[in-house]
Amino acid sequence: MIKGIIFDLDGTVVNVLYDWKRIKQELQTQGEPILSHIQSLQEPERSKKWAILERFEEEATAQATLKEGMEKFLAFLKKKKIKTALVTNNSRKNLDFLLNKFQLSFDFLLSREAGLWKPSGAPFLFVMQNLGIGKMECCVIGDSHFDVKAAEEAGIKRIFVLTQEKGKKFSRGVETANTVKELEEKISAIL
Predict the structure, then answer these.
(1) Is the pTM of this model over 0.85?
(2) Strand order in 108-110's β-sheet?
(3) Are 29 and 37 in contact, with CB atoms under 8 Å apart?
(4) What is the pLDDT of residues 54-105, one digit of tens each?
(5) How crowded is residue 183: how many other Cβ atoms within 10 Å of its Cβ?
(6) Which domains does the chain have, with CATH numbers?
């Protein structure tokens, strides 16, 4: 039985456009995940690259829109007494901005300032511990391979990916949905 759902923010709860190719190019990540790359740098280069990333994030966050049907879906989960958490590699500043802008609330929030970020399973394990739920009582809803990898590393078996990319491949057992309405139907079936 599902008692809690961990959501990703960007691309899952909200539509936000990032030009990842351009961002990685400007940050010169050399194929490394962005946050790991920046964290591995020495000062003053680290601070300089954090500022570049934050500029890109703030621009994209300002233009973000709520996923169609998300408000209704979250209200449905609240009515069913399902605990919800939001885990993002984005900053707390941008997270708070979006929560205020769309009047959203979750039982637990985790941003990158916690020092735990995807694709590691550590953020999801931390959330489950804080919500008091086990991995068999939890599912993850994300939009990327980072979300899938983090869920798998945390031992969470029920993984849903919200994507409009036809034919996008994920690990076996990962369920995809094209709309929040379709996602809600899939979640309803396991509650």
Answers:
(1) yes
(2) 108-110, 83-87, 4-8, 138-142, 158-162, 175-177
(3) yes
(4) 999 999 999 999 999 999 999 999 999 999 999 999 999 999 999 999 999 9
(5) 22
(6) 4-16+65-188 (3.40.50.1000), 20-62 (no CATH)
